[in-house]
Specification:
heterotrimer; A: alpha+beta; Rossmann fold; 23 helices; 21 strands; B: mainly alpha; three-stranded antiparallel sheet; two-stranded antiparallel ribbon; 6 strands; 45% helix
C-alpha cells in the first residue's frame, strides 16, 4: 500500500518545481527608477497628457498658475500684496507641476517594470538567421524577422528556432528552458498534438527539423505580450474605459462647479483669485485614480507575465475576474497526469505477495510512471526480481493489445493490462477467468481507480489498483473559488463512477464523464447561455474550438499551434492549475481600480472642508474650518501637497494590487469599503492637518 | 414607423386625453360640487342677518381697530381695496401674496420694530409698537409675522387672548363675556392631532358684533 | 413642540402604511394584471385607444419610446400654448383676463409640460378659469402621466422586460391611477371647503370698514388642487398656492395634500420591488430615502421652531418663525410640507420658502439637488436606481468583478448615460445660469423696461440662495420658489427669468428622460448573469448604506460651494446677529 506521505512528497516536489521556475525569465529591474524619473518629465508633453482627461486639466491648470505667478494681475487686479500673491501662486504652480510628474512617474514605473519584463521576453528571441526553404528546394538565408506565416524553415542542431511554428518533418530534441525554465529537452516530431509545436527563441539540441512558420513577424505570442506589458500598444479594457468616462464626467462636474463659483463669491463679496480656484479644481477632480489608472492596468499585465502566462489582450486578463465557471480537464489539471499503483487485489486464492511478484515481473521493463509505481509498490510488498533481466524481454504497450509485460527467461509470459485485454490473453492461453475478477474490477472502478489485471500465462493472479492522485491543495482552492462564486466543472473521459469519485475527492462542483471534445464545447455554450463567463484550458488541436468559444481560453505552451491560436492566453509552464491564479489576478486588477476610485472620491470631503471655509472666510463661514487650518494659504497648500503626495504614496499599491482574499462579494465589499471608502474619508483630514502644522505659514 | 403615423398618434392621443381630463373631468366635478356641496363649492360665503354677503368663512379680513380682534399683518391687506381708487385692479380678480422677506433681511426687523425716517413716506410704524399701543403687551408670533397667503383667517388662541382686555374695554364688555366667543370660533386640530388651533377672526368679530352690549 | 413632532410622525406613518397597497396596485396596473376597476375601465380604455389609434400590444424600443414621449409632449405643449394665448376670447373667463406676454406663456408652457409648474405669474391675475382647468389642468394629468410612463418603462427595462408602449402607459396612468385618486380627492376637498365653481370672484364690503371691499377670488379649484398634489405638479390655482385658504383650507385638507404628494413617488419604489420581485431591496431603498427625508424634516423643524433669533430678541422670548406661514398649519406642518414638496418635486407650498430660516433653504435645496428624496413622479424612482447603478459602478469593482446590477453588466454605455444624467445635467442647468444671473445687474429703481436683470430682493447670501434655488427648482422640475425673486411680469427682470428658467426646465426634464430610457433599453438587452456568491448583492443594508454615501458625496458635494455661500453663510450671519 502506498502511504499518504508518499503522495504528499510526490506532490510537494512537483509544486516546488513549479515555484522555482515561476519567475523565469527573470526581469532586470536595475535602474528602473532613474529611468522612470526621466520618463516622468518626458511625459509632460501635452500630446501625451491630453490622453488622460483628468491629468490634462491639471496640466492646463499648471500653465495658468505659472502665468499668474509671472503676473498676478493677468486676469484682473488682485487686492493682496502682489509679492505675496506671486509667492503663493508660485508655490501652487510648483505643487501642481509635481502632481503631474508624480502621476507620470507612476505610469513610467509600471511601464518600466513592464519593459524590463518585455526585455526579458525579448531576449529569448534575438534576431537570428533563418534558413528559409524555397519552393524549389533551395535554402535562402533570411533574418528571422522577415519570416512570414506559412514559410518553411530548416533548423539543425544548435540553431535557435526563428519563429513560432509547427514541425512538419524530422524529429529532434529541443531545449525550451529559455521560456519555460524546464531544463529537460523536449522531443519534437510532426503529427502529434503536443510535440509538433515549437516556440521561437528555443534551441534545437539534436538532429534537424523542417518547420512551418505559424505567425507573421511581430505577431507571435511573445511579441504581443511584449507590446502589452510595455503598455505601448495598450488598448484600454472595457472597465477601464467605463471608469475613464466616469472620471471625465466628475472632472467636468467640478470644472463647472469651480468655474461658476467665482461670480457667486464675488456677489457675496468674498472674491478669490484664479490660482486659488485652480487649486480648488485640482483638489476636487479625481487626480489620485486619474494618475494611477494606467499604472494599475500595466501592472496587471505585468503580474500575468510574472506568472509566465502570455495574454493576448488586457481584456482577457480583466475577463478572468469575471469568470464564473472553470472548465477543467481531469487529467493533468485536477489529478496528476499519471495514475499510481495503490493496491494489489488478489483473486481466487492468490496472495498479495504473489500478485506483487507477478506485477513486478510484468513491469520490469515498463518505463512509464505507472510502471515505475507498480515496481515501487511491489517491492514494498517484498517482491523481488528472481530472474536475470538480461535474458528476459519486455513487451511494450500498444493501443491494439492494451497490455504490456515481460517474456521471462523460463518461457513464461507475464502480462498486465486492461482487464478485458488480459481476459482475452488468458483465454488464448487456455486459462479460465477467476470468478472474483469482476468483483475486484468493480471495486476499483467504484473507488475511481483504474484496474489492471495481472496474469502469468493462463492464470490471472489479481488486479492492480491504479489510483488517480488528486493534486494537493486543490480542494481548498476549489472551496475558495466557490466562495468567490466560481463554479468548477471537471471533464474526463472516465466512466461516471470513476468520474464521480474523483469529482468528490477534488471537490469540484460538477463533472462531465465520458466526455468527448464536443461535450467540452457544449458545456461551455450551456454555461454561456446562462450568462456566465467561462474559462478553460486545453492543449490539443481538438480543444481549439472550445478554447475559442470560452471567454478565457488558456492554451498550454506544450500544446499544438492550433490550440494556441484559438486561446487568448498561453501558459508557458503548461500548468493548467494556473487558471485559478489568473482568476485572482483578474479580480485583483478590478479591485485595485475600484478601491482607488472610491478612495479618490472619498477624499473630496476633506479637501472641501480644508479649502472652501478658508478661501471664503470673507463670507463668514470660517467656522466650517473644522480642521482648524492656520490660514487660507496654508489650507490650500496643505490640501494640494496631500493631493500630490498621495499619488506616489499609492504607487506601490497600484503596482502590487490590492491584496485579494477569497471571500464572498459581500465580505469583500465590507472590507474594502471600510479601508478605501471610510479610510478615504478620514485619511485626508488627518494628513492635511499634519501638513498644515508642519508648513511654515502663519 | 413613419413620421406621419407617429405624429397622428401623438395628436390624437393629445386630443382624446384632453377631452377626458380637461373637459369631462372638471365639468363633472364642478357639477358634483354645485349639487352636493354648494356652500363649500362657492367659497363658503357667509351672510349677515340681512342676507348680505360679508365674506368667506375661510378667508380673513383686515381688522386693525381696537373694537375688533385684530387679524395678522397682511401684505395685500387681505385682498381689499377702496372700490373708488382701485388702480391695481385688486377687486377685479382678488390677490394673494407673501412678504418673502428672508430671516436675514433687515427689512423684516424694520417692519416689526418700526423705522423712523425724515421722509415720512419711508418711515415705518412697526408692528410691535402698533400692537403695544393697542394694548398687546406681549405680541405673539402670529401677530407680528405676516402670513403666507396674506388671507390667513386665523390668529392663535394666545393672540386672541392677548387682545381680549382691549376689545372688551373698547366695547364696554366684561372679558369673561368674550371668552366663550373665542372658544366657539376656534378651529381645532384635525382629529385633535394635525395642524394648529386657530381663532377665525372674521367669525369671532361677527359674533362680537352680534353680542348685545352688557348694560 | 412635542405635539408638532407627533403630527409629523403620524403623517409619515400614514405614507408608509399606504405604500404596499398603492405600490402593489400600480404594479398590477403596469404589469397588465387584473384590478378592481377593470369592469369600468376596460371598455373606457378600449374606446380611448381606438380613438387615438394606439396598438396596445405593440412594444416600443428605447428610441421609439423616447420619440413617443417627445412628440406627444410637443403636441400637448402646442395645445396649451394655443389655449393660453387665446384665453381672451375663450369661454369661462369671468375676470376677463387677456393674453399674457409671450415670455410668460413660453415659461408657463414649458414649466407645466415638464411637470415642474414653476409659476412666474399669479394665478388669480394671469390665467382665466378655462386656461386653468382646460389648459393647465390638462398638464397636471399628462405631465405626471408622462413621468409615470417613463418611470415604469425604466423599471421594466432594468428588470429585463420590454419597455412597453408609451401611449398605453400614459393613458393607464391617467385612467387607473391619477383619475380615480383625483375624483376621490376632489370630493374630499370640496367637502373640506375648497371651491369648485365657475362663478367669478365675490366682492364684499369688509366688516370693519364697509367703504373698503374685499375681492374673494375663487374658481374650479378642488379638482385642480388634488391633481396638483398627487401628480407632483405643484402649480397652484392661486398665487400663494397651498397657503391659500381656498386651496388648502384646513389641517384636514393639508393632511391629504401632504400625503397626496408623496404617496405615488414613495409607492413607486414598492412598485419596483414587486416588478423586480425584490421587495427587500425596495424597502431598503425606501428606508434610505425615508431616513434622509426625516433627517431633513428634523433639521428644518427644529430651526423653524426655534425661530428667528433677531425677532425673538425683539419679542423677548422664543417663538417659532411664522413669517410666510399660516396659523392653521403652524411650524410643524409647514416644515414637513416644505421638505416633502421639495423632495417630491411637487413644488406646492403651504408656507413661503423664502422666509424660512437658512436651515430650511439648505434642506430644500439639497432635496432638489439630489432629486431622489422621493423625487419626481415616476422619474424619482428611476433616478434612484440610476444612482444605485452608479454606486454599483464605483464600489462594485471592489469585489473584483465587472460591476453588475440585477445581473446586468454596467459598462461604458451605462456609465455614460447614468453619469451624464445624474452628475452633469444639474451643474449645467443650475450652476451655469446661476453664475450668469449673479453677474447680472439688479434693475435700477424706476426702470420698467424689460432687460436682463437679476431680480434679487433679499440681501447678500440669501439673494444668492434665491437665484440658485430658482434654477435648482427648474432643473429638478420641482417648481417651488423663493418667492421674493422678481420673476413675474411686469418686473423688468421677468424676461431673463422666463427665458433662463425655461432652459433649465427643458434640460432638467428631457435630457434625463432620454438618458433614462436609453439606459433602460440598454439594460434590458443585456444577457443577465446569474447570481453567485461572487456577485455584489445590491439588496443588502451594506450596499444601501454605500449608495447613500455615493449619493451624498457625488450629488451633494457638487453643490457644497453653493450651499456654503448661500444658506450656510446666511446661518452664520444670523447667528452673529443681523446688521
Amino acid at each position: 500500500m502506498q502511504t499518504p506521505q508518499d503522495s504528499d512528497s510526490l506532490q510537494s516536489s512537483r509544486s516546488g518545481k513549479r515555484d522555482s521556475r515561476r519567475h523565469t525569465p527573470k526581469a532586470n529591474m536595475s535602474g528602473l527608477y532613474q529611468r522612470a524619473i526621466r520618463e516622468a518629465f518626458i511625459k509632460l508633453d501635452p500630446r501625451t497628457e491630453v490622453k488622460n482627461p483628468v491629468m490634462f486639466v491639471v496640466w492646463v491648470g499648471t500653465i495658468v498658475t505659472f502665468l499668474v505667478t509671472l503676473d498676478p494681475n493677468l486676469f484682473g487686479t488682485v487686492q493682496a500684496d502682489p509679492g505675496q500673491q506671486r509667492l503663493l501662486n508660485g508655490l501652487i504652480t510648483f505643487i501642481l507641476f509635481f502632481t503631474l510628474v508624480f502621476a507620470n512617474f507612476a505610469e513610467a514605473v509600471a511601464e518600466g517594470r513592464g519593459k524590463a519584463q518585455a526585455d526579458a521576453l525579448r531576449s529569448t528571441r534575438s534576431d537570428t538567421i533563418a534558413h528559409k526553404l524555397l519552393p524549389d528546394g533551395s535554402i535562402q538565408e533570411v533574418s528571422s524577422t522577415e519570416l512570414q506565416r506559412g514559410d518553411q524553415v530548416k533548423v539543425v542542431a544548435g540553431d535557435m528556432i526563428p519563429a513560432d511554428g509547427e514541425v512538419i518533418k524530422g524529429i529532434a530534441s529541443v531545449d525550451e528552458s529559455a521560456i519555460t525554465g524546464e531544463s529537460a529537452p523536449v522531443l519534437k516530431q510532426p503529427g502529434t498534438d503536443i510535440m509538433s509545436s515549437v516556440t521561437g527563441g528555443t534551441r534545437i539540441l539534436s538532429d534537424e527539423l523542417i518547420l512551418k512558420v505559424a505567425s507573421d513577424p511581430g505577431q507571435g505570442f511573445i511579441d504581443r505580450m511584449i507590446a502589452l506589458v510595455e503598455g505601448a500598444e495598450r488598448v484600454k479594457t472595457p472597465n477601464e474605459i467605463a471608469l475613464t468616462v466616469l472620471l471625465t464626467v466628475l472632472t467636468l462636474v467640478f470644472l463647472i462647479v469651480v468655474a461658476t463659483v467665482s461670480p457667486l463669491a464675488n456677489y457675496v463679496q468674498a472674491p478669490t483669485t484664479i490660482a486659488i480656484l485652480i487649486s480648488l479644481l485640482v483638489a476636487l477632480i479625481p487626480t489620485t485614480i486619474g494618475g494611477l489608472l494606467s499604472a494599475i492596468g500595466i501592472a496587471g499585465m505585468d503580474r500575468v507575465a510574472q506568472f509566465n502566462v502570455i495574454a493576448t489582450s488586457g481584456r482577457a486578463v480583466e475577463a478572468c475576474g469575471d469568470i464564473s465557471t472553470l472548465v477543467l480537464d481531469k487529467t493533468g489539471t485536477i489529478t496528476l497526469g499519471n495514475r499510481l499503483a495503490d493496491e494489489f487485489i488478489p483473486v481466487d486464492g492468490h496472495t498479495v505477495e504473489e500478485v506483487a511478484q507477478i506485477a513486478l515481473a510484468a513491469s520490469v521493463f515498463d518505463e512509464t510512471p505507472e510502471g515505475k509505481s507498480i515496481v515501487i509498490l511491489a517491492e514494498r510488498n517484498s517482491a523481488n526480481i528472481n530472474f536475470n533481466t538480461d535474458d528476459a524481454s519486455g513487451v511494450e504497450f500498444t493501443a491494439r493489445t492494451r497490455m504490456s509485460g515481460t517474456d521471462l527467461p523460463n518461457g513464461k509470459e507475464v502480462r498486465k493490462g486492461a482487464v478485458d485485454a488480459v481476459k482475452g490473453f488468458v483465454r488464448s492461453r487456455g486459462g479460465t477467468i477467476p470468478v472474483q475478477l469482476d468483483a475486484a474490477y468493480e471495486r476499483v472502478s467504484r473507488l475511481g481507480g483504474t484496474p489492471l489485471a495481472v496474469c502469468q500465462d493462463g492464470e490471472i493472479y489479481g488486479v492492480i489498483y491504479l489510483k488517480d492522485i488528486v493534486k494537493a491543495g486543490l480542494r481548498e482552492r476549489f472551496d475558495q473559488l466557490r466562495r468567490m462564486g466560481v463554479k468548477t466543472i471537471m471533464l474526463t473521459g472516465d466512466n461516471r463512477i470513476t468520474a464521480s469519485v474523483i469529482a468528490e475527492e477534488a471537490g469540484v462542483d460538477d463533472f462531465i464523464a465520458e466526455a468527448t471534445p464536443e461535450d467540452k464545447i457544449d458545456v461551455i455554450r450551456r454555461e454561456q447561455a446562462e450568462g456566465k463567463l467561462v474559462a478553460m484550458t486545453g492543449d490539443g488541436t481538438n480543444d481549439a474550438p472550445a478554447l475559442a468559444q470560452a471567454n478565457v481560453g488558456v492554451a498550454m505552451n506544450s500544446g499544438t499551434q492550433a490550440a494556441k491560436e484559438a486561446a487568448n492566453m498561453v501558459d508557458l509552464d503548461s500548468d493548467p492549475t494556473k487558471l485559478i491564479d489568473l482568476v485572482t489576478i483578474g479580480k485583483q486588477l478590478l479591485i485595485t481600480r475600484g478601491a482607488l476610485t472610491t478612495f479618490s472620491i472619498a477624499n473630496d470631503i476633506a479637501k472641501y472642508f480644508a479649502i472652501i471655509p478658508t478661501i471664503f472666510a470673507a463670507a463668514g463661514i470660517g467656522s466650517l474650518n473644522i480642521m482648524g487650518l492656520k490660514s487660507p494659504q496654508s489650507a490650500i497648500i496643505s490640501a494640494l501637497i496631500y493631493n500630490a503626495l498621495i499619488i506616489p504614496a499609492l504607487i506601490p499599491l497600484a503596482l502590487k494590487g490590492v491584496q485579494f482574499r477569497p471571500l464572498t462579494a459581500d465580505q469583500l465589499l465590507r472590507r474594502n469599503i471600510l479601508i478605501y471608502g471610510v479610510g478615504g474619508v478620514i485619511a485626508p483630514f488627518i494628513a492635511i492637518k499634519i501638513i498644515d502644522v508642519l508648513l511654515p505659514f502663519s | 414607423m413613419s413620421f406621419t403615423r407617429e405624429a397622428s398618434r401623438a395628436v390624437r392621443s393629445t386630443l382624446v386625453l384632453w377631452v377626458l381630463t380637461a373637459i369631462i373631468y372638471p365639468l363633472a366635478m364642478i357639477a358634483f360640487g354645485q349639487i352636493v356641496f354648494p356652500f363649500q363649492a362657492n367659497g363658503s360665503i357667509i351672510k349677515n342677518a340681512q342676507g348680505q354677503d360679508v365674506g368667506s368663512a375661510l378667508i380673513g379680513q383686515p381688522f386693525t381697530s381696537d373694537r375688533y380682534f385684530n387679524s395678522r399683518p397682511s401684505t395685500t391687506s387681505y385682498s381689499t381695496a377702496d372700490p373708488k381708487k382701485d388702480d391695481a385692479g385688486v377687486l377685479k380678480t382678488g390677490v394673494s401674496g407673501a412678504s418673502n422677506l428672508a430671516p436675514s433681511n433687515p427689512a423684516l426687523l424694520d417692519r416689526m420694530k418700526g423705522k423712523s425716517d425724515p421722509d415720512p413716506t419711508k418711515a415705518i410704524e412697526g408692528d410691535i409698537p402698533r400692537l403695544q399701543k393697542a394694548g398687546v403687551k406681549q405680541p405673539t408670533a402670529d401677530l407680528v409675522y405676516t402670513s403666507g397667503s396674506s388671507l390667513d383667517p386665523h390668529i392663535t388662541p394666545e393672540g386672541a387672548a392677548a387682545q381680549l382686555d382691549r376689545v372688551a374695554k373698547a366695547r364696554g364688555l366684561q372679558p369673561n363675556q368674550l371668552e366663550p366667543l373665542i372658544s366657539q370660533n376656534t378651529d381645532g386640530r384635525f382629529l385633535g392631532i394635525f395642524g394648529e388651533p386657530g381663532v377665525n377672526v372674521l367669525k369671532l368679530n361677527l359674533a362680537l358684533d352680534a353680542l348685545k352690549p352688557a348694560s | 413642540m412635542f405635539q408638532g413632532w407627533i403630527q409629523i410622525a403620524l403623517t409619515l406613518l400614514i405614507v408608509v402604511a399606504i405604500t404596499p397597497f398603492l405600490g402593489g396596485y400600480m404594479a398590477r396596473v403596469y404589469l397588465g394584471e387584473r384590478t378592481l376597476l377593470d369592469p369600468v375601465l376596460n371598455p373606457v380604455e378600449r374606446i380611448l385607444f381606438k380613438l387615438s389609434g394606439v396598438q396596445t400590444r405593440e412594444n416600443m424600443t428605447g428610441w421609439q419610446y423616447i420619440k413617443a414621449v417627445l412628440y406627444s409632449n410637443l403636441v400637448m405643449a402646442l395645445l396649451l400654448t394655443f389655449i393660453l394665448f387665446s384665453q381672451g376670447w375663450l369661454p369661462f373667463n369671468p375676470t376677463a383676463l387677456s393674453e399674457p406676454t409671450w415670455d410668460t406663456v413660453l415659461h408657463t408652457v414649458i414649466s407645466f409640460i415638464t411637470n415642474t409648474d414653476q409659476q412666474h405669474y399669479s394665478g388669480e391675475t394671469t390665467y382665466g378659469y378655462f386656461a386653468q382647468f382646460a389648459g393647465l389642468g390638462y398638464m397636471l394629468f399628462v405631465s405626471a402621466a408622462t413621468g409615470l410612463a417613463v418611470g415604469i418603462a425604466f423599471i421594466r427595462g432594468l428588470t429585463g422586460r420590454p419597455l412597453g408602449n408609451f401611449y398605453v402607459d400614459l393613458t393607464q396612468s391617467i385612467t387607473r391611477i391619477l383619475l380615480p385618486i383625483g375624483i376621490i380627492g376632489t370630493i374630499l376637498f370640496i367637502a373640506g371647503g375648497v371651491p369648485e365653481t365657475l362663478t367669478g370672484p365675490a366682492i364684499v364690503p369688509t366688516l370693519e370698514n364697509p367703504a373698503i371691499s374685499q375681492a374673494i377670488a375663487r374658481g374650479p379649484v378642488a379638482h385642480f388642487e388634488i391633481l396638483k398634489q398627487i401628480g407632483e405638479n405643484g402649480g397652484g390655482f392661486f398665487a400663494v398656492n397651498s397657503a391659500h385658504p381656498f386651496e388648502n383650507p384646513s389641517p384636514f385638507t393639508n393632511l391629504i395634500q401632504t400625503v397626496g404628494m408623496v404617496m405615488i413617488p414613495s409607492s413607486f419604489i414598492y412598485t419596483y420591488g414587486v416588478i423586480a420581485n425584490n421587495r427587500k431591496q425596495a424597502w431598503l431603498v425606501y428606508g434610505m430615502v425615508l431616513t434622509i427625508s426625516i433627517v431633513f424634516i428634523i433639521f428644518n423643524g427644529i430651526s423653524e421652531y426655534n425661530g428667528n433669533p433677531a425677532v425673538n430678541a425683539l419679542l423677548g422670548g422664543q417663538v417659532p418663525n411664522l413669517e410666510g406661514k399660516e396659523v392653521r398649519f403652524g411650524w410643524a406642518q409647514s416644515a414637513l410640507f416644505s421638505v416633502i414638496t421639495t423632495g417630491t418635486m411637487t413644488g406646492a407650498v403651504n408656507s413661503f420658502h423664502d422666509s424660512f430660516m437658512p436651515t430650511g433653504g439648505f434642506v430644500m435645496m439639497s432635496n432638489m439637488f439630489l432629486q431622489i428624496i422621493w423625487g419626481g413622479q415616476g422619474t424619482g424612482t428611476a433616478y434612484l436606481f440610476a444612482y444605485l447603478i452608479l454606486a454599483v459602478f464605483v464600489t462594485g469593482l471592489m469585489v473584483g468583478r465587472t460591476p453588475e446590477f440585477l445581473g446586468r453588466k454596467i459598462e461604458k454605455r451605462e456609465v455614460v448615460l447614468a453619469g451624464f444624467l445624474i452628475l452633469l445635467v444639474h451643474p449645467i442647468a443650475i450652476l451655469i445660469p446661476g453664475a450668469i444671473a449673479m453677474s447680472l445687474p439688479s434693475a435700477p429703481d424706476g426702470v420698467t423696461a424689460q432687460g436682463f436683470y437679476n431680480g434679487i430682493t433679499n440681501p447678500s447670501f440669501h439673494g444668492l440662495t434665491q437665484v440658485l434655488y430658482e434654477y435648482a427648482s427648474a432643473a429638478a422640475n420641482n417648481g417651488s420658489g423663493f418667492g421674493g425673486l422678481l420673476t413675474s411680469q411686469p418686473a423688468p427682470s421677468a424676461l431673463w427669468w422666463n427665458l433662463s428658467a425655461s432652459f433649465s426646465l427643458l434640460a432638467g426634464r428631457y435630457v434625463p428622460i432620454v438618458a433614462l430610457l436609453l439606459l433602460a433599453d440598454s439594460m434590458s438587452r443585456k444577457q443577465p448573469v446569474p447570481m453567485t456568491s461572487g456577485t455584489l448583492r445590491t439588496d443588502t443594508g451594506l450596499f444601501t448604506g454605500i449608495t447613500a454615501g455615493v449619493i451624498l458625496i457625488m450629488g451633494a458635494l457638487t453643490f457644497f460651494p453653493v450651499l456654503a455661500l448661500g444658506p450656510i453663510a446666511e446661518a452664520f450671519q444670523i447667528a452673529k446677529g443681523i446688521g
